[in-house]
Each structure stands twice: as structure tokens, then as C-alpha cells.
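Re-running the complex after MR caught last week's input typo. The corrected sequence lines follow. Everything else is unchanged.
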Amino acid sequence: MAKVRGLLVWIASLAVLLLLPGLFDSVLSLSILNQMGITIIFALSYNMLLGQGGMLSFGHAVYFGLGGFMAVHSLNYIEAEVFSLPVILLPLIGGLFGLLFAVFIGSFSTRRAGTVFAMISLGIGEMIAACSLIFVGFFGGEEGISGDRTMAPEFFGFDFAQDLEVYYLIAGWVFVATLLMYLFSQTPAGRIANAVRDNPERAEFIGYSQRMVRFISFCGAGFFAGVAGGLFAINYEILTEENLNAITSGNVLLMTYIGGTGVFVGPIVGAVLLTLLQTVLSNYTELWQLYVGLLFVATVMFMPAGLTGVLMIHTVAWKNGRLRQLILPYITVGVPAFVLLCAIVGLLEMLQFYRHGVVGEHEMTLFFVSVDTSSVWPWIVTLLIAATAGYLVKALTPRLLSAWASANAPLERAKT
Amino acid sequence: MSFWRMAVLVGVLYPMCSHGADAVRIAFIDPISGTFSATGTNTLHQFEFAAEELVNKKAGVLGGRRFEIVALDNKASPRESQIQLKRAIGEGIQIIAQGNSSAVANAVTDAVRKHNRRNPANRVLYLNYSAVDPALTNDKCHFWHFRFDAHAEIKMAALTDVIAKQENIEKIYIIGQDYSFGKAVAAAAVKFLGQKRPDMAILGNELHPIGRVKDFTPYVTKIQSSGAQAIITGNWGADMVGLGKAIVDAGMNVPIYTYYAAFDGVTATMGKAGKGKIRLVHEGHYNPVPTKRLRDYHSAFKAKYPDHDLSNQRVYNVIEILAKAIDKAGSSDPLPVARALEGIEHTTLGGERVFMRREDHQLFQPLQISVHTDEGIEFDGDNSGFGLRTEESVPLENTLVETTCKMTRPQS
Amino acid sequence: MVEIVIFSTLNGLVTGLLLFMLASGLTLIFSMMGILNFAHASFYMLGAYFAYSVSLFLGFWPGLIVAPLLVGVLGALVERYGLRYVHKSGHVAELVFTFGLAFFIEELVQFAWGKETKNYQQPEILDFPLFTLFGQNFPAYKGFMIFISIAIFIGLYQVITRTRIGLIIQAAISHPNAVSSLGHNVPLIFMGAFGVGTALAGVAGVIAGPVLTTFPGMALVLGSIVFVIVVVGGLGSLTGALIASLLIGLLQSYAIALEFAVNDLLALFDISFDADHFLNDLWTLSLPQIAPVLPYLLLVLILIFRPTGLLGKRET
Amino acid sequence: MNSILSLTGVSKSFDATEIIRSVDLDIIEGERHAIIGPNGAGKSTLYNLITGRYSVSQGSIRLRGRELAGLQPFEINRLGLARSFQVTNIFSNLTVFENIRCALLWSMQYRYSFWHLVRKQKQLNEESEQVLQQIGLGARKDMLAGVLTYAEQRSLELGITIAGGADVILLDEPVAGMSHTEADQSVELIKRISEGKTLVVVEHDMGVVFNLADRISVLVYGEIIATGVPEEIRNDIKVQEAYLGSLDEQDA
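Corrected-run output:
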């Protein structure tokens, strides 16, 4: 039963991947989908370290970037007819070089976990990023390295000139890479990685070298990061120092953590959400990064298991058959909480407009309402809404908590 | 998961699918955040103002269509520009304006060329208003790229004419940013000084990482102790502010020949210490103002944006020439507009004749060499009382240079 | 040559001591609480911005007092309501939290003050050359920076070695678990340490703002280099942090001044390569180019071979 | 009388303090050997030395004649020596079943394989189930180990220790902190699972020790002062002095 369901999930995902461009066929949505696909693989590979192996890395972009650089160099070699390779296999080149580099770096950095590992990864990341300005031949300096994906031999008549073709290429790799990473987590090496994450010392006393276990996860993560880098090279046809610097490394940490490190699909959710925020929300507000920052800090503090983790903690209530008891409390707290959130966003947006907007203009559109920021009334109204909603949330939360407790209480028939 | 992903996508993407096709939208892809945000933001305002003042207030183009500037932040990064370019294209924008950093321009021009070749139905036009790596209108030229600023070699030719006349300067130091533009400036300086003043010794030819150096003191120490009698630099934005600050702090008292040592904080930083020392090559006119049109325009800009400057005078040329070309073409589609732009002639707000050369899509225009001073200044920079006063003018004929560009033109 | 040596040393000293001001607070926090505070440089940035805002109304000097105090209070609040809450989830969660905080503060600064560079200037009273050597000025403001940093080092050193609080701090550094059993209020000590540490970063921000420019990316520029200093200097060692700071400050200023390249080295052995050799980038590698890499190389090597750092007592 | 684990002249010092002083100890194959001694005598340190957690300052430790000094804990484990911990040491974010399965992986030759799917390994899963039944946690199979009760966690700790099939098992205070009934059940469990294996146990509860052990060694201040069958130890003057003395100290 579980087996069939698992298979169905994969088939459904594949179908969705194939059908998505039918739903969103504009140039813009295609480019967003492409970006999403690349980010999904990258975030999943990062979670092989953080979520599954317990290694906090501040330099994972190194493997993404190096894989990408090798892929874009390969594109140029293909164009110069040094060797020939269909574009569709380019991510493999990225992956192999990501792996190669991970083998080298991992051989010393995985000796320790925790803070030491984090610091080494940071140091390596900064070093490689700084090197990119030195080895101009390889990294292309400030300009980066560009390539042309259409110069490669055609693949069954596809030359990948159109974004749609690139989409299917990326979607194919997303499916394969996700499947492989999922399967990896189900192998002895993947399972023991979880054990080492939880308790490295104990793992040593059941016959496993924690260092070797981390090393294997690290190499796997390097490989898939390289694959993502190769896809980046195909999609954007340019690689620069930013692809391997600390900001890219930080972003992948951000989205993985927000999505949730404890569940396999967590990073996928994080990657999709963050890409949407980055591409869509940024059209509506200049403050989107502030919101992302808020979301991140709130995630670390209040839901360290991430968004998917929050969903996962409902499994007990679900198994108890009491999920329904939670619906009403969720709505009664959720609605005012949403209003409160909107009011806060409104205040921030008004402040931003008031301070940085065009001189002489006072009218702004906020949630489809035209607002004059030079008058006091919008401020007072928004503050009042925020205060009322805040009070309601505070007053209604205890009810939610007690409903939560009763929904999660062990059933009587369960043994204690 | 799949369901959620779909639901979210439907919800968020749907509102973006429809856009009014009324306005002619121009994507402004430049740094609005990061180290060079001051430069980008300032130029953005100039674009918005020019579009409003020169087009929208005058019945627009094609009988009433407005210009709309869509700002896209590229953080001065080639990669991010690529992403923003895709986004602009995705939103159906057909005209791209970009200027800050030739590194970015090289990536954008390459991407535009590829995109237009692959998507003949959906082409875009690239208006380069400030990236002056000579390669862009030489080896890397293509039909869809138009440059409105004189490139690094043209400017250096004018600048070295002035330097060559300074008999007392025998030792000179070149410092610039480590990318194609900085390298082009240095190469041009070495080339022209070698021709015009073979006796002059170039003591140093140094490149520093762009946008990363926060304290230029060590560089200035080095320049100072080399015994240089003059400095040439192409630095712009924050890198010019930093360099200028270190020079002032060290009390160096030598002439500095520059491309962009004004506005965006540079003028305020140099202040009194830079008086009479900084020479800058530029298009357009700051002080004295040659025409009433330009004076009115400049005053109106300062009235609307008291904290910003009309730092890039070429911006109003971009907008006016584009509007002219669109009206001439009778369409805002890239191909007819590009054809109309080729060889277009125009009289600027400052009353100068300029033309877009057909062979390489390089705009040729008179250049000015100005000095940083507080005397005879009507329009200052950074509200500091200091500004640029024209010392010498280079007529259009003297700015003509040859090109290696071999343009191929699309048939349809 | 002499002038290059003198001025490079002075430049290095200024940078190094500035870094030390940042690192001293971070060392304090790291040693006592075991937290590598990613947001430390963000507090430095906040110091600069607060001081800028204060200076608009009251001038530079009140900012020097007010801004660090504000930053310190903010830091203490972050410890009390943020870190302490996250602490129970372990070190990795703490690191992620401070990382998120750094990200958030950067956005907050852009929201509050805008994205552009602020015109935060040094006080006019210090706007004169302290002395002139070989025709080159040494600005009085830089002298002032050196003075403040050294004063802070001496002050901190005295507090830690001579006072009762210092003894508790020392105990907390070497035996974090033992202090609570001696009846001290450890959470309060931690909150205090975090407040003082961030306030020190605030001071650094106030005086660095006018020199290194006040802009939203200023935290990122120094963020990771401060880690290098703390790890290299060694856990719990103020002197180690000072040595590491100076080392890196001098390294950065000398690297720009001295333009040695691999070429020059090879020339000594009469080896030369064509410019189109495929490893040309390697042969023309020069000191200014590799200078930014060296601190991180040092960091990695130290972590691998000597996890206690130069003068540390415990492992990282 | 075949000695399977033998310590000769083993010493360990931390800085200047010698915690273990020239310990000689022979564990005979198949026996149940208890190590007792007052608090701070160095019992846990001795375990840590044998299992490779600490390195030996002097002397040699041999398992079936093979020198263990210088080996990593996981290498020693692979030679067939497993241990439990005084403070519960399990994989708290994995399910109970997963805990046991991980403990079985190495001994079943899976090593670091990333080409087997654990779900599909029939024998591995069956054996894991068996161990779970053995330690009485069959009903808790899918719960996270971290949420088990203390006694259950101790059983799991034991299960992880024995799952790998090691034939020398070192238990560190297996019944500490348990109620009488729980402890009795635990002792039965230990007896059951150690059949045919060599068992070394450190324990404070004398009832348990005398119930369980074939032989007893007494460790005081890092030295073994006596080894023998329970009767001998009970009547040994030195042991009585050491114990009474230390009990006095503890009371004071």
C-alpha cells in the first residue's frame, strides 16, 4: 500500500513537471520555473548536508559555482569543437567536478562537525570567491564566463534555443536528481548519516566512522550542487564570482531552513517559495527582502523545523483522527493573525513610501486601496486594525493551545 | 506538494499575465542596491525625469503613448543583469537601457544578441547609455546595441590632449578598476601618452578590485611615494568617492584626470581640497549653461529632486533620440526603431549636433573637459557649492575614430 | 622605500586596531557562550548608522557615546529574547539564528536609512593632518582611531585581570559550567557579555563609519574577516585577538604596497613563461592579488592543525 | 580458561593526575564479569580506554590477542566489542526501529553502501524486528526514540549495543535510575541477551551484581584490588575496607 502510494507520488510529480508549462506558458513564468528547478536541486543537495548529515555549511555555493564554471567552459570547448557532448549531459560535467572538488575539500573538512565544520566551509567559500578574481582565465574576473548553449550538437532535433526546451531539460534533471537524492536517503549510507547527525559518538560505537559517513554525504551534496550549477550554466549561459560567493551560500541555507530540514520535501518547498518571493513579490514591493529576513528569523525562533516541519507535527493529531478539532481554532486565530500581518505589512509599506517615495507624491496603492500617506488617518486606521487584531490573536491563542493539546493527547486505548 | 506548488503559482502569476500595452516601457537595468546604488538611483531619477519632461508632457510618442521607466535592480552584477533581462523580456518589455559597468554591458549585449537570434518574434533593443568599453562598438558590436556615450578611447584621446599640454608633468600614475573598462582606460592612456608625450614616464598602472576596496589609503600611499605628478583614473561611483577621500586625507596635491569624478558623493568629498585639481571629460554642459532649454531643464530637475544631480547629461539624449526614432519609425517595435536609430541626427538640449553612426551604432557628440571648482558655478554637485566648469571643448569632428565593427543587419 | 614602510605600517595599524575593536567583543561572546555571532558585524553597522543619525542633530561626539549604548542595549535584548530562546536547540541553531539576524539587520538598515551611502563625516575638530612625513599627511582622525582602540584594549585587559567581574568572566571562559554552581547568575552574565560585546562593535562602527563609508553592505565586508581573527587568535584570548587583528591589518596594507609577483620569484631562478601560457594567471600572481585569500587560508589551516588558535586555551 | 579480553599494566593520566594505575584484568570467554568500585574509581574511564574513546597512556589492551591501543572506537567495534553508556546515548530523532536497524548495518556487511535500499533488505528488517521483540519494544517501533520513557530508552540502549552481534559486551550501569521492578526485568533481559557471549558490566547495585556476575573485580582509585567469584569478593577484607571507607566519605 505504502509502496504504491510512494510510486503514485512520483508519477504525479512527473506529470506536474510535464504539464506546468502548459499552465504557465508566458516567457516570464517559464523563466521563473527554470530558476525554481535549479534552486530545488541546489537546496535539496544542501539538505543532504544540513538536514540529513547535520553539517551546517556556509560555503555550499562553491560546488554549485565550480560545477557551473566547468559546464560553461565545456560549452565553449564544444563551440570550439575541442570535444562534443549534447547539452543535456552538461549537468553531469558540472556534477562530476562538483564531486571532484567535494572529495578534495571533504577529505579534511568533514573531520569535525558543528562549529568547526561551519567555519571551515566559510573559510573555503571566501577563499574560492577571492580566487575568482585572481584566476581570471578560469573565472573570467568581474565579467564572468559566458557560453552559448545552442552551439552544442542537437539532441533529437532540439537545439535548446527556446526557454521551453530548456524547461524540459531542467525538469528532467530535477526529476532524476530528486529521485536519486531521495533514494540516497533510503540507503545504508543515507540512514547512517541521520544517525551520525543525531549522535556522532554513538555511531562510532556501532561500527561507523563518523568522518567517513559525513564525507560520503558531503560528496553526494557536492555532486548534486554541481548538477544544479551545470543547469544554471545552461539556463543563464553566464557564470560569475557571485555564483560561488557567500551570498549564494547564504541564500541556499535560507531557503532550505525556511522550507524545513527535517522532511525530504522541505527544501523543495523552500526553494519554490523563495524563488516566488524573489521573482514575484519583488515586483510588488521593494521591501521583499525585509519580509524574507523576517520570515527567516521567525522560522529559526518559532518553528525550527521549518514550514514543512509545522505541517508534519500535525501527523499525531491526524493519526488520532482529531485534526478536525483544530480547524475552528485555526480559523479563529488565523484570521486575526492574517489581518495583523497585513496591517504590519501595510505600516511598513506606508513608512517606506513616506520616506523613500517620489517627492511630492502622497498617493500610494496598498492592498488595492489608494492611500494618502501625508494624512494621519491611514496611519491611525492601520494602527487600530493592528492593535485590534493583535489583541484578538492574544486572546484566542490559549483556546488554540488547549485544542492542540487535546488533539495530540494520546488516545485512551493506546498503551502508556 | 505538487498541488500546493500549482495553487501558489496560479495565485501569484495570474495577476501578472495581463499588462496594458499602452505605454512604451523601458527597462532600466542598473544597480539600485549595493555599493553602486547611489549611481544607479541617481541615474534612474534622471531617466524618469527625462521621460516625464521630454516625452510624456509633450503628447508622448506615436500620437499619445507615454514612456514608462521600469527599474530593475542588477546590483551591478553581470549575472543578476542576465536574470533581470530575462525578467524584462518576460514582462514583454522591448527596450532595455543599461549603463553602469562595462562588465554588465558585455553580458547584456551578449544576451540580447543571443535572444534576438533565437526569438525573432520577440526581440529587444539595447540602449547603452554609459558603458564605454570600446569593444562594445567594435569587436562585440551588433545590430541591436546602441551606445550614447563616447567610448573610453574617444574620451582618453580628448583627456590626453589636455595632459600633453602640461609641460611640467613628467611622471604620471594610472589607477583603475579591475575589469574591462578599467583596462580599456589604462590601455588607451598608455597608447595616447606614448604618441603625444613619449617623454612622460608612467610610474604605475594599477588595477584594484571593483567595488570592494573600502579604504584607498594604501593605494594613495603607493602613488604618493612613487613621486607621481599627476593621476589618471576611470573610477566611478563609490570607488571614486573612496579614492578621492584617500587622496584628500593624504594631502596629495597633484592634478587628477578623470572620467567620472563628479556627483554621487564625489564632488562633496573632494570639496575644497580638489579645487582646480580635478579635470573631467564629459558630454553635455554643466557650467556655463549654453542654452535656455538646458537651463530650464536642469532647474526643473533640481526643483523636483533637490538631493540628486543631473550627473549624466546623455540621459536626456537617450530619451529624446529614442522618442524621435520611434516617431520616425511609426512603431515602437525593436526592428523599425533600430533601423530609424541608425544614422539618426539630433540637436541636444545644449544646442549641439550629434549623430548615431550607422557602422557601429556609436553616438558621436562634442566633448567637454571641465574642472572641479566653486567659481562660476550655476549648477553645483551634491549641493556642495562645487561643480564642473567647462575649460575646453572638443568639437564633434575631433572625436571621430575608426571602428572594426562589421555589422550584420537582419532582413526582417 | 622608507616612507612606504612607515605609512604601510601606520595604515595596517589603523585597520588592524579597528578589526581588533570588533574582534574583542566577538571573542568575549564566543569564549563565554560558545556562540560565533554572525551578526556581530551587523551591530558594528548599526553603530555607524546610529551615530550618523545622532550626528545629524547633535554632532559627532554625542554619537560616540549614545550609539554604542543603543547598540549594547539592542544586543542585550537580542540575547535575552532571541538567543536564549534558540539556545536550547543547540549550536547549529544558534549559528543559523545569528546568520538570519545578520541578514535581517541588513534589510532593516536599508529600510530605515535607505540603500544609498550615507554622508557620515568625521568631526571637523579632527580634520587636520596630525603630522606630515615625506609630503604625505597622516590624518588626525586616524590617530584618534588608534588611540581609542588602544584605550579599549587596555581598559578591557584591566577589567578582566584586575576586577571581580573580570575574574568571573575568566572563570566563565575556561569553565562555563562551573560558574553557575558558584552561585552566579549565568544568564545575566551572558546577557551582559553580549551587551558589552555588541557595544564594542558599536564603538568600532561609530569611528569606522566616516573612514570606511557608511553603507548597507559595510557589515558584509568585515563580517567574515572578524571570524578569522577570533578563530586564529584563539578562544578566550584578548591578546591573541589583538595579534591576529594586527597581523591581518598589516597583511592587507603591505600586500597593496609591495607588488611582488610569482614572476619576480621565478626570475630569480631565471625561469620565465610566455604570456599566453595557459597557467599565465598563476605566473603573474602578485601579492596584492593573493592578499584577500591569505586570511581565509590561515583560518582553514588553523582549524585543521591547531583548533585552539594561536593563544587559545580551549578548542573551538 | 580462555581469556578473550586482557588488560596488562594499563595506565591513563589526564595532565598530571593518574586516573587508572597499572590495571591488569583478564576477562574469560563466555563469563559474566562485573566491575565494581566506589564513585570516581575510574570504572567509566576504564571502559573508555577499552573501547577506544580515550587513548591509553601505558600498557596494552588485547581482544583475542589483538592489540587495541591506537584503534578508533569504530574499528574496535568492528572487532566484535560493543558497549552501552551510563548516560543514555541513542539516536533520539530516529524511530526506535531505525535505531536498531542502524546498529545492525555494519555487522550485516552493508558498510557505507549507497546502492542498497534499506527498505528492500528483507533479512536486515527481520533481524531488526527480532531485536526489537527481544528488548520488548516491538510496540514502540515507529515512535521517535527521544520520546520513549527512561526505562524504555535504557532497553533501547541495550538493544543498540547487542544488535550488531558483538560477542564481547560492555555495559555501563545498565540499571541505574530504575525502579526495583524495572531493574529486575532489565537483569532478566541482560541475562537473556548475553547468553553465549562475554559480558562485562559496571554496576553500583550490589544485588544486581551478585545476581548476575560469574566473577567480580573491584576497582578502587584506579587500581584493581581484587578479582574473584562473588563469594571471595564478599569476604575480602580489602574490599570491605575500601567500600566501608568510601561509604563513610560519601556520608560525610
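None of the earlier attempt is carried over here. The radius of gyration of chain A is 24 Å. The first strand of chain A starts at residue 145 and ends at 146.
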